[in-house]
Amino acid sequence: MKLLVINPNTSADVTALIEAEAVRSAGPDTELLVRTAGHGVEYIETRFESLIAAGAVAEIIAEYHGQVDGVVVAAFGDPGMPALKELVDVPVIGITEAALCAAALQGQRFSIIAISDRITAWYRDCVEHFGLGGRLASIRSINQSLNSIGSVQADFKDTLLALSRQAVAEDGADVVILAGAPLAGLARELEGQIPVPVVDGISAGIRMTEAVVALQSGFHRQGAFAPPPVKRRSGLSENLDAALADAQNAAAQSNAAVISTAQPATQK
After folding, report:
1. Rounded to an integer, what distance in angstroms lies between the CA atom of residue 103 and that of residue 175?
2. Sequential DSSP letters for 63-116
3. pLDDT of res. 258
4. Counted domains in the chain
5. Average pLDDT over residues 195-205
């Protein structure tokens, strides 16, 4: 199995954190291609920054179209999701949806620990989008300026631990999610120090994607995640245009086959 893991942030040091945790989490037969967004911001905190990142992620997915078995969008908030599911014939899974699924399987209520106050409104939107707002105990966040996005774990480890414990003791969380690529791997370091299960978004993203790929459930040919309809387009990169065309052609062929098999045999 080959997975494409994309950091929608432009920070190479965050990509290194993602890759380290992805390697620790992946199965022995999984090959990882870890890539960084070609344009955008060093770390995403807002809906608009997520919008910018979505295009960069789509370009990388299109570049590796036909070469991988699954894609992990490795930033909490899942930039470009769920729209990116329409682009290719492999599972595209964000670390938010993976972490929320993992948390929902392990407890009734969960809390999210975030790296900034500014990011919390967007994260709350994401939880509501997945229909899990009623199970969100809290979102707690660091309310201090960050020195460097790559050193958040080292700079605020004690703060993040305290926020996690408060989420359990004061908010009633059954599970804690350490949100965001900059916190990749921290759950391992804090093992045993938080009295409930702790979910790492990167680890959840890798393992959930491996599981969905292995299920071989089939492709989106109709419905909400079918490829976009054929129409005139301009200004797209060669890779993105080709990926769209392939998705549309595959859907057209599949739908034609479905129509053909649904028609009754001609009576003689």
Report:
1. 6
2. HTTTT-SEEEE-STT-TTTTGGGGT-SS-EEEHHHHHHHHHHHH-S-EEEEES-
3. 59
4. 1
5. 97
Instruction: Report the alpha-carbon distance of residue 83 to residue 123 in Å, rounded.
Output: 17
DSSP string spanning 227-258? PPPP----S--HHHHHHHHHHHHHHHHHHHHH
Look at residue 205 and tell me if it is in a domain. yes
Domain contains 221? no
The rounded distance, in Å, linking the Cα atoms of 122 and 139 is 11
Classify residue 38: in a domain, yes or no: yes
Gap between the Cα atoms of 153 and 77, Å rounded? 19
Flag whether 186 is in a domain: yes
Q: Give residue 100's domain range.
A: 2-215
Q: What is the CATH number of the domain that holds 191?
A: 3.40.50.12500
- Signed CA dihedral, 153, 154, 157, 160: sign only: negative
The string of pLDDT tens digits covering residues 204-224 is: 999 999 999 999 998 887 888
Query: What is the predicted pLDDT for the residue at 268?
Result: 45
From 224, 181, 186, select the one nearest 206 (Cα to Cα): 181
Quick: pLDDT tens for 225-265: 888 889 999 999 999 999 989 888 887 786 665 565 666 65
pLDDT at 267 over 70: no
